[in-house]
Amino acid sequence: MLIIASLVMSVSLVSGNPALDELNQQGDALFAKLNLASDEAIIGGNPIGLTLARADDKEGAWQYYWHRYERNQWKPMESPLDSTLLPEEILLEVDVDGDTVDLINSTMEAQAKLLNTDPEAEESEVFIPSAILDTTGEITDIRIRLKYQDREFTPYTITLNDTGQLTRTEAGEP
Predict the structure, then answer these.
(1) Taking all residues of the chain, what is their mean pLDDT, rounded to a whole number?
(2) Is the four-CA dihedral 50, 107, 94, 147 of positive or negative sign?
């Protein structure tokens, strides 16, 4: 792990573009956590959920957080799969099953549902993550793009297909 961190730091020092380096580092971190979460779902025998949301309100920074499905409820996970707050300059865009998701409105509803932990709640009131990594290795077909606000970089793109194959394309100069 230390070797990877050193390699990422040395690459960022060489590139000469701190904004692009930050975008790629954040994308690499999410990509690594998706790999870990996929393995955790298979080994642990419980589905893992990923939720992408605004941190505080519609104007705030983005964050992503993880949940494990246990005893018929989605429960927040701890380190290393705990909540991650992205820098305010980094934006998220998501396609699920080929359709672009309105993250601002859908995640506010999801966050409200997350607070409801009543097992007697009606199905419409129950929290459901943006993407679910199943114990069989299957996942919601999802494409996540990390973009740097007010910069013309190509986005860092992570793609997870419905069979659990995970790929990435690093951000770069246009």
Answers:
(1) 78
(2) negative
CA-CA-CA-CA torsion sign (65, 69, 75, 81): negative
Identify the pLDDT of residue 90: 92
| Residue 101 identity | V
Burial class of residue 107 (count of CB atoms within 10 Å of its CB; 0-12, 13-18, 19+) = buried
Q: How far apart are CA 109 and CA 143, in angstroms?
A: 21
Contact 50, 38 (CB under 8 A): no
> What is the pTM assigned to this prediction?
0.77
Mean pLDDT of 103-108: 58
Cβ pair 145, 161 in contact under 8 A: no
Q: Do 91 and 146 meet the contact criterion of CB atoms below 8 Å apart?
A: yes
Alpha helices in the chain (DSSP H): 2-15, 18-44, 103-114
Can you tell me the distance from the alpha carbon of 160 to that of 141, in angstroms, rounded to the nearest whole number? 6
pLDDT digits (tens, 9 = 90+) for 37-65: 989 999 999 999 888 887 765 467 888 98
Quote the tokens at residue 24: 């790629």
pLDDT digits 0-9 by tens, 17-32: 899 999 999 999 999 9
Cβ 68 vs Cβ 75: under 8 Å = yes
Residue 5, both tokens = 């961190």
H or E stretch covering 156: strand 156-160
